[in-house]
Amino acid sequence: MVYYMSLPVTDTSSTTGTTRHVDTLVIGSGFAGLGAAIKLTQAGKRDFLVLERGNDVGGTWRDNTYPGAACDVPSNLYSYSFALNPGWTRSFSPQPEIQRYIQSVADKYKVRDRHVFGCDVLSAQWDNDRNQWRVHTTKGDYTAKVVITAVGALCEPSLPDIKGIGDFQGEIFHSAQWNHDADLTGKRVAVIGTGASAIQIVPQLAKNVSHLDVYQRTAPWILPRSDREYTKAEKFAFKYVPGFQRLSRTLQYVTRETQVVGLAKAPVFMKPLQAAAEIHLRRQIRDKDLRKKVRPNYQIGCKRMLISNNYFPALSQSHVDVVTDGIDEVTADAIVSKDGTRREVDAIVVATGFHVTDSPMFAGIIGKDGRTAAQVFDAQGQQGYKGSSIANFPNMFFLVGPNTGLGHSSMVFMIESQLNYVVDALKTIERYDLGTVEVRQDVQDRYNRELQEKLSHSVWNNGGCASWYLDKHGNNTTLWPGFTFEFRNQTRRFDLVAYNSVATSDLPSPAPSAVADKKKVAAK
Ligand code: N01
């Protein structure tokens, strides 16, 4: 369904037919984009649209419907601070419940009519003549003074480049694109990958398949999952006792923040957690050979720490094999590992993660010097300022941008921090009638030098693993290197001084060629 009938849109000319102009375009409607729609509305902004390629809000929680999908951050923390949900049934909610929560927030705050669903953004190009963004989508063209990209880091599935994988004749799909029509009951199935998604999928698949091969490239550290159903009394208290749920959330927040010391500042403090993971492994896997196979050889926290109570027991079952020899090739009906062993399978689940630092989306964002975000990132890495703006991309704000990821707590907290910053930026633009704002390159460079210096002490950089946290330059451009309240403090207010800005009245008029273009189109 398309919702844009009530919007104050203005037609401008374009070579592709009618172009809608809005003051602000938000791209994507997961936690970040939906949060933006709510905060923009609350700030009194009416002239904005959210372009969403799916047919509903939810983003990654709408798309990841694989069996066992659930959050590994407690729900009381993994929710908007302004929309606590007394209805959570468990401490760590499953995907359908999170998706229902996100939908209910969209309804409660009445922002669905700000959305254009089924609208895939193909490109966004800064127009130097008119000082605005030209956004090309599968549902027509838009221009906007400001673009907020909220596409998230986990939206583009990464498919492994394995010889012959395209020739496989059985069912094959990515964990984020689960084919619910494929009945895997009684089948021989392979799962490639042992990350956060795979360890949730494997125990569910193991229940029904005749044989399961788990292809592990790097073993993850796994901690116990303290998940449980909320009691009636707790649910009652969440709903009716003022402050009870917020207190529970605060306790979860504070407990998780203590991990930052070990993760980001002094990895030696990760030792107690690693000991807990060792004990968990020993308790759950009796077979010494299997235990040796799945014991990581790097420091805990270097890759995302996972939580599960049913992954190791699933691996211990007689019809489940962990394959660590590496994949040589895939044939029409089998996976051949590097030691030459051929294992026949009916289906392959590819749980190999996402394009985080190399999203194809970046190739479609074209900045003021004509370079795409992909080219800029290729040259310098994914560097930004406060995760929210990037030099060369004026009037564009990024939610879940560079160095905003977390290894220990709720991304929703980071998103809300960014929303404070971005909404204040829009208010500042309006207050001073600014035509353009663009973060200063020198400010961005200094910010990134400081970030990388901090990260050089972290377990992510020193823990002895390879991970998608680090880009091809060896820089960690994904994670925030400190306490999340430090990020909250940094993003409380938009700092105009860090930006080059031009008042609307000082912007040069459109170049003659642009005016001529406009006239030509108008004459058609
Ligand atoms: O992906 P991943 P994911 N051949 O990148 C392996 C979030 N999340 O979808 O470690 C063989 O973690 C790869 O091996 P290696 C969370 O932020 C959150 O599981 O690179 N194997 C790894 O084992 C998470 O971090 C929740 O050596 C290959 C796996 O595939 C992010 O999503 C739940 C390979 C990929 O693991 C992504 O998780 C689920 C190849 N060519 C996910 N390429 C929550 O609960 C990759 N691998 C909030």
Automatic annotation (TrEMBL):
GO molecular function: monooxygenase activity
Presence of keyword Oxidoreductase: yes
Family matches, as InterPro entries: FAD-bind_Monooxygenase_sf, FAD/NAD-bd_sf
Pfam families documented for this protein: Pyr_redox_3
Membrane-crossing residue ranges in chain numbering: none
SUPFAM superfamilies: FAD/NAD(P)-binding domain (SSF51905)
Entry-linked Gene3D superfamilies: FAD/NAD(P)-binding domain (3.50.50.60)
Highest taxon in the source lineage: Bacteria
Entry keyword set: Monooxygenase, Oxidoreductase
Oxidoreductase recorded as keyword: yes
Protein name listed in UniProt: Cyclohexanone monooxygenase
Organism per entry: Rhodococcus triatomae
